[in-house]
Amino acid sequence: MSDTTTASAAASGASATERFQRDKSPYAAVADTPKERVDTLAREVLGAIHDTIRRHKVTYDEYNALKAWLIQVGQDGEWPLFLDVWIEHAVEDVATEHRAGSKGSIEGPYYVPNAPEQGARGTIPMREDEKGSPLVWTGRVTSTDGSPLAGAKVELWHADDDGFYSQFSPGIPEWNLRGSFTADADGTFQITTMQPAPYQIPTDGSCGKLIAAAGWHAWRPAHLHVKVSAPGHELLTAQLYFPGDEHNEDDIASAVKPELMLDPKPSADGTGSTIEYDFVLDRA
Ligand code: MBD
Ligand code: FE
């Protein structure tokens, strides 16, 4: 991984902020939150901060460092990154704890709706000379009662072999490594793509500053992002991971679960790997 990752921190932060403001998230229903609920949550969060300040005797220097840092997070456009890396996993746990179907994981800051449709079997949009190791993924979408979900939509997006996402890093075609697939009558789909690389969150912005100041690392393990949807069923947002990645155990975004681990096999032609991974959706 080269320094060009970090060179685009401000640009990718600005893109993520703009994307969130334009598309909104399905979770962003702020106006509907009752007063009592806001009162409880705001009071508890502020109380937890006051407790930490008293317990650790936080100084004015530290308070002012925090103030400067919070201002900078906004100026860098890194609120989507900060929230999705350090907060979203808890929200996702709570939102999906009732499910009997497939486990999900966080959406993260780099989803873009309406990626180009590729049918039930196809290759995700990629450059002619796309770097990396080819990956052929066969899967099936069913309901919790076992019935196939014909026409289920599988949206896939992921980083390239350098760890960059299209529309958030410069110089990559708009829909590169972003595609929508539609399961056939039996609920099956087959996607050809390129294995993603581990991803380092931008290190030259405010989130990187926090990471350096705390002595943490900035890595997420290599991952595939998916959204799987079908009429009458709950939307599944998930990420899939590759065994052996050195950051599966210490993902900076705390978004790895054992159920989301793939089991890649070498492909017959020896040029890449094949994976099988199915989804079970809960009825809405
Ligand atoms: C990512 O690619 C990602 O998936 C998350 C959750 C946060 C930052 C970058
Ligand atoms: Fe990601």
Strand proportion, as a percent range, falls in: 15-25%
Q: CATH fold name, please? A: Protocatechuate 3,4-Dioxygenase, subunit A
Query: Which of globular, elongated, flat, extended, rod-shaped describes the shape?
Result: globular
- State the end-to-end distance: 42 Å
Region (Disordered): 1-25
EC number: 1.13.11.1
Pfam family, one: Dioxygenase_N
Protein name: Catechol 1,2-dioxygenase
Question: Can you summarize this structure?
Answer:
The chain has 284 residues and is α/β, with parallel strands linked by helices.
How is the topology of this model organized?
Elements: H1 4-7, H2 9-23, H3 35-56, H4 60-75, H5 79-86, H6 88-96, E1 121-123, E2 134-143, E3 153-158, E4 178-182, E5 188-194, E6 199-200, H7 206-214, E7 219-220, E8 223-229, E9 236-241, E10 265-266, E11 273-276, E12 279-281
Features:
4-stranded antiparallel beta sheet, binds fe (iii) ion, alpha/beta, binds 3-methylcatechol, 284 residues, Protocatechuate 3,4-Dioxygenase, subunit A, 7 helices, disordered N terminus, 6-stranded mixed beta sheet
Give a description of the structure:
With 284 residues, this protein is an alpha/beta fold. It has a single domain, classed as Sandwich (Protocatechuate 3,4-Dioxygenase, subunit A), CATH 2.60.130.10. It is 29% helix and 20% strand. The protein is built from seven helices and twelve strands. The protein has helices spanning 4-7, 9-23, 35-56, 60-75, 79-86, 88-96, 206-214, and strands spanning 121-123, 134-143, 153-158, 178-182, 188-194, 199-200, 219-220, 223-229, 236-241, 265-266, 273-276, 279-281. The strands form three sheets. Strands 1, 2, 5, 10, 11 and 12 form a six-stranded mixed beta sheet that branches. Bound molecules: 3-methylcatechol and fe (iii) ion. 3-methylcatechol binds at residues 81, 84-85, 106, 108-110, 199, 201, 220, 253, 255. Belongs to the intradiol ring-cleavage dioxygenase family.
